[in-house]
Structures are given as C-alpha cells and as structure tokens.
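INFO  loader      accepted 1 record
INFO  loader      residues=411
INFO  predictor   begin
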Amino acid sequence: MKVAVFTLGCKTNLYESGQIISALKAAGHQAVSGLEYADVFVLNTCAVTGEAERKSRQAVERARKLNPDCRVLVVGCAAQKNAEQFATLKNVTFVKGVANKTAIVDEILRVGSEVEQLPSEFLESGFSEQERTRAFVKIQDGCNNFCSYCIVPYLRGRSRSRHICDVVNEIKQAASSETVLIGIDISQFGSDNGESLPQLFDALQCIPTRIRLGSLEARVVTEELLESLTHINFCPHFHLSLQSGCDAVLKRMNRKYTTAEYYNAVCAIRKVFPNAAITTDVIVGFCGETEEEFEITRAFIKKIGFSDIHVFPYSPREGTVAYKWEDTDGTTKIRRAEILNEQKYLLKKQFAEKFTGKIVQVLAERKRNGIWEGYSAEYLRVYFPGDANAGEIVNVKIIQPFGDGAKGERV
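INFO  predictor   done
INFO  writer      dumping tokens
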C-alpha cells in the first residue's frame, strides 16, 4: 500500500512525520513524504494559528484531488484541538490527536476518531527517518509556560523529556553532518527526569556531527550551559524567543522574563561566542499593544542587533487566556509587521557584512544553476560556485552580502 505523509507546522511535527514514515516502511508499506498520488494519506496537522488550522483542513481536499478514492487519516494538533472538524470531511476515515500519533501505522484501516489522553512521560516511538545532510532529533515534548496567547500547552500537554542515552543513540544512527535538537520547548529539557541540557551536551562531546539548537528561552542561558557548549561541535546560533521588546506587553503575554534579563542573556552569549547568530520571533499587534509599546519593541530589536527575525501578526486562538481580550485591528498589525520586516532585512545584511573576508564552514545542501547553497555554523545562508557534495561541510570565504545571505568562494 502506498502512503503519503504530509506535514504542516513545526520541526517537531516534521520529526514525528519521519517516525511515521519509518514505521510504515518497517510494516511493509511504500511511504513517501509530501502530497502525491497514494492509496492513503496521513496528514500531520498544526493549530498554532487559525491559518494553520485552515490549511490543515484544506490539505484533506488536496489529497482527495490527487486520488478521489483515497483514505485520509488526520493526526496532530488541529485534530487534538477539534477532531470533529475533520471527522465530517469526505474521505477522512480516521482522526487521531497528538498522543501516540505514530501508532497510526497500526490503525491505517481503522474507521472513527480517537483522541487519547496526553502522556505524562516522554514516549519512545522509534527513530525518525532522516536525511544525511541535516538530521532533526526530538529531545522533548510539551510545554509548561502557558503564555496567554498560545494554544500549544493545551494540545501538547506538559513538558516531557527524552532520556539522554536515547537522544545520543539516535544521533549516532542518523550519522548526519549536522543535527538539530528540537522540541516544543527544549529549554525545559530534563526538568521532569533529573537530567539537563549541559549533561546532554557533555554526552555529545565525542560525536562528530555539528550540533544546532532549536528555540531556547533566555532564562536558561547560564554560564554552565554556555561552558558546556564550548566542548562540543556546536553551531553558534541561538534562537531566543522574544515575542515583544516591551515589558508591559511581555507581562500581558505571561512571558516569564524582562527585556533586561533577555539583554543580559544575549550579552552572556556574545561574550563566549562573539560571532553567534541571535535569531528570534516577534508578535506584533498583541492585545492592547499601543503605538508607544510597538516603538519600544522596535528600539529593543535594534539594540540587540538580531541576525534574523520571524515576524508574526497576533492571531487569537480560542481556548487561550487572551482570546476574550480586545484585539488590535488588522490594518495596524499588517503595518507594524511591514515595519519590522524592513528592519529585519537591514539587520540580516549587517550580520552578513560582519563576515566579509572571513572563512566560514558551510554545509552544502543543494546546487541550483551551478551555485551551491547552504548555511554556515553561524546560520548565515551562503552561496558559492565550485565542486561539493550534498551533506559535505566546506570552507568558504565570504565576499559580500547577497540576497538573503552572502556569496563566497570555496577555499
């Protein structure tokens, strides 16, 4: 039987789809990633925004167009939030939530809906299918933060950590040039099982793959954590969630830090890793955000000097604390997002300029029109001509900023 697994949303979802594909192949099925003709479609959905939930429903129609006689199985966050929105759609035969979603392999021919209780411990579900270029390894699931705007803790449950030995075993098996450690909030890794991020990094000292981290909270940036990173093959790139650069807005968001604490974390990083990329997420137009509060955020972004920013207009989610609060009008959100995106492109260029004349290590990912593309350890997108192999890490001398990154030459 041919099964197509289609993923929406975060890197954690992508990882879990890889687990589903691995399990399908082990069961003797032909399994592929993405939307193409198949007998069965498994749609791994997202519900972080209303738009993500809409696209999850839309994916059912896209699958049906590829094969009008197909069976569609829906799993993931959007199904966890509201299984009924999928159960009534044509061709959908089974709906499953977040818990134990990889068991869908054993339920391929079942009919109905099953949204199980979320687990209290990290459940091992087999290794995810990985590319040799870059592997994503899940180390944690769930979240304890309950930010006022976020639905994720209600859909994913409380934080649950994977044991270090299991993480190490999967990284060794993947044998990729680069490994990204991911989760819903990896900052909480070990808080439930007595382990810690520094202990995990200590266990990775002898593994040759270079290590990149998923999103972190500023509060976990300590001397101990930074010191432990200096002993591994670490990519100096920190994605520190900000969401707002204004303390009043952060308080309404129920974010558990101040801008001063965030700034101190960035300074601590740059003391140990002077050329580190600092990237972040920012929400504009959160409930009650005034023009003055927005300008405070804008000034803070400039002060930090991020290398990249993901800008999101606030999207109310039913079931969150902020859902009943007065929303900011859409026109204001769009205008503020445009302003920050202009600032983003200026900051990206300034970050690229810092590397002019320097040699960086680039993971060659793909070649288009005779030019290789890939990311340096510092998360600078680099374009260079010449010979390379996909998955190879090569030395490239940066010539100048170019497009969304920089152009260089292999040395």
